[in-house]
């Protein structure tokens, strides 16, 4: 009724709207709204007749202006709600996308940069980084597997275990290849390249790699003349494969696998005893144990304990070569090569794959030689040549393993007593006479290793390789423990004990007396003792025979004897024979 009363009253309100004059009445005067223009444009909704001509419309027409503020308020709230929801969705999508970008791109790139920085400082860390990555993946796999087994009621867990057992999921299978993402491929490629560089150039090339990677502003061209060189103290060992030329003729292309089996044994034991292979010339291998510098805090090895000294390094070098000798004799794979009918026909039915060893200590220059097309990282020194000469002398003395005084004198006393002093010689390149020691080992006393069947569930794959590497790292660390009596690894090894069984204390005492007479120039008395020891073992003792022949060939020069002689004084037509 109020609305009808208002509409029935006089219309005396004048308003100008869009250039047109309106006369009417407002129903919202109580709210202070006399004309539609008192409201905002969107808050007014006009309604006019639509069946009028333009002339009539301009002359006069009836119009109703409705207040739609409440409706616009609801619409605005709805719009704000929609806008807020859209912003939330956009933020969520942005977070998801940024997380994927971080996981797929940014994190791998940051990880690659960090790894490259680590490799620049020490290229040997590339292998450790790859090892740690695999360790993390393996740990995550085990956690996921355990979490799956632990979830749910007991009967569900039992059902899952039964299902896994029937489908052999509990058995380890090779991990499927990771998704071929470019960042992952690039990261793995960098690690592999660094590992291959370290493997290819060896311990001597580590400094070269680090120096090349750390240079800024380089064009990528390697300048051999600017590469670092430094003088180091090291124990150098030479390992030679016996009858190698015959093996090459007989085995032909298979000789590569033959050498690989030997180097696999050599490198594995070198790694365990902190040595490093350097040069492989087919039948000879040069191996090195770097000694700590006297005037620096340089570590012996990346795995050596703080305070580890040259004595422990010398002990490891002597023991490592002995264990390499035993491992090659016991290897079933190498024994199969020994039974090759053509090799046996040419080298005898008792042929076994054998090695000879020479060990010497001295300084060397560690550096690279070559050009921009090819470089080799190696050690250059007359002491390297001496090490080769010492190995070559094994044929002269009829033994498998010779070491010079500088090495043996660094060993612990009990290990020194296991090395027999057999001569004092001057070798080309040495400024003073060198004591020659033999590590007495009888290869005939060590049989081939019996076949050990592996459990059915053991397979050689990435997981077992990882576990084996973990075990090797643990055992390698133990060797640097100050509580470990390193000589027990030699004296307590059953293979070494077996090979040394023919060499009795009576034999050592008799030879020692003969050698002391020989060194003092009392050759008549020395010959009596050495003639006893040459046949005392049940086989010819090479050092006794070599000294007897030397004294026989130089009997007229006994008055000029100074307690040593040149290694070349031995007759070339009288090899004492290799055991």
SS element count, helices: 20
Count of β-strands: 13
Query: What helical percentage do the residues reach?
Result: 40-55%
Which value, in Å, is the CA radius of gyration? 44 Å
Distance linking N and C termini: 133 Å
Structural commentary:
With 579 residues, the protein is of the alpha+beta class. It is built from 20 helices and 13 strands. Strands 5, 6, 7, 8, 9, 10, 11, 12 and 13 form a nine-stranded mixed beta sheet that branches. Helix 4 (125-150) runs antiparallel to helix 6 (182-214), helix 18 (505-519) packs antiparallel against helix 19 (523-533) and helix 19 runs antiparallel to helix 20. The N and C termini lie far apart (133 Å). Mean pLDDT is 81; it is low at 166-179 and 295-308.
Structural descriptors:
single chain, 579 residues, alpha+beta, nine-stranded mixed β-sheet, two-stranded antiparallel ribbon
Task: Describe the structure in brief.
The protein has helices at about 1-10, 55-60, 70-120, 125-150, 155-165, 180-215, 245-250, 255-270, 310-330, 330-340, 340-345, 380-395, 405-410, 415, 460-480, 490, 495-500, 505-520, 525-535, 540-555; strands at about 15, 20-25, 45, 65, 230-240, 275-280, 285-290, 355-370, 375-380, 400-405, 420-425, 435-440, 565.
């Amino acid at each position: 009724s109020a609305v009808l009363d208002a509409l029935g009253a006089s219309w005396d309100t004048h308003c100008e709207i869009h250039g047109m004059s309106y006369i009417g009445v407002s129903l919202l005067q109580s709210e202070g709204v006399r004309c539609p223009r008192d409201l905002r444009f969107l808050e007014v909704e006009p309604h006019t007749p639509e069946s009028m001509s333009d002339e009539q419309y301009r002359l006069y027409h009836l119009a109703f202006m409705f207040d739609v503020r409440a409706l616009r308020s609801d619409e605005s709230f709805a719009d704000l709600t929609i806008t807020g929801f859209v912003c939330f969705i956009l933020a969520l999508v942005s977070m998801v996308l940024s997380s994927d970008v971080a996981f797929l791109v940014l994190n791998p790139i940051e990880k690659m940069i960090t790894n490259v920085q680590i490799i620049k400082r020490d290229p040997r860390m590339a292998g450790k980084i790859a090892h740690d990555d695999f360790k993390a993946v393996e740990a995550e796999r085990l956690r996921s597997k355990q979490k799956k087994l632990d979830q749910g009621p007991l009967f569900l867990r039992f059902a899952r275990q039964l299902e896994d057992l029937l489908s052999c999921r509990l058995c380890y299978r090779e991990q499927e290849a990771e998704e071929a993402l470019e960042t992952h491929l690039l990261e793995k490629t960098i690690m592999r390249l660094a590992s291959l560089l370290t493997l290819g150039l060896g311990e001597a090339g580590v400094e070269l790699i680090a120096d090349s990677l750390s240079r800024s502003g380089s064009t990528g061209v390697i300048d051999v003349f600017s590469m670092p060189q430094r003088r180091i103290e090291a124990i150098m060992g030479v390992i030679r494969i016996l009858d190698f030329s015959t093996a090459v003729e007989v085995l032909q292309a298979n000789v590569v696998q033959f050498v690989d089996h030997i180097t696999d044994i050599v490198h594995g034991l070198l790694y365990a005893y902190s040595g490093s292979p350097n040069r492989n010339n087919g039948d000879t291998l040069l191996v090195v144990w770097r000694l700590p510098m006297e005037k620096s805090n340089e570590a012996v090895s990346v795995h050596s304990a703080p305070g580890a000294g040259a004595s422990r390094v010398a002990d490891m070098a002597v023991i490592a070569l002995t264990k390499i000798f035993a491992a090659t004799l016991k290897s079933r794979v190498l024994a199969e090569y020994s039974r090759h009918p053509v090799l046996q026909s040419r080298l005898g039915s008792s042929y076994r794959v054998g090695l000879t060893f020479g060990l010497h200590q001295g300084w060397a220059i560690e550096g690279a030689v070559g050009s921009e097309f090819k470089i080799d990282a190696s050690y250059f020194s007359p002491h390297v040549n001496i090490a080769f000469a010492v190995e070559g002398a094994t044929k002269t003395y009829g033994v498998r393993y010779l070491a010079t005084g500088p090495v043996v004198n660094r060993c612990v006393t009990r290990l020194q007593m296991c090395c027999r002093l057999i001569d004092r010689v001057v070798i080309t390149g040495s400024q003073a006479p060198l004591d020659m020691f033999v590590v007495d080992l009888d290869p005939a006393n060590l049989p081939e290793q019996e076949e050990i069947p592996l459990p059915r569930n053991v397979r050689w794959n990435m997981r077992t390789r990882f576990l084996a590497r973990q075990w090797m790292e643990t055992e390698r660390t133990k060797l640097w423990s100050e509580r470990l009596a390193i000589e027990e690894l030699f004296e307590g090894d059953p293979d070494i004990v077996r090979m040394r069984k023919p060499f009795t204390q009576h034999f050592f005492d008799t030879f020692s007396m003969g050698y002391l007479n020989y060194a003092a120039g009392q050759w008549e008395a020395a010959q009596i003792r050495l003639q006893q020891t040459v046949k005392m073992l049940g086989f010819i003792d090479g050092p006794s025979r070599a000294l007897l022949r030397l004294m026989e060939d130089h009997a007229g020069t006994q008055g000029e004897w100074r307690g040593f002689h040149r290694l070349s004084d031995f007759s070339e037509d009288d090899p004492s024979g290799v055991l």
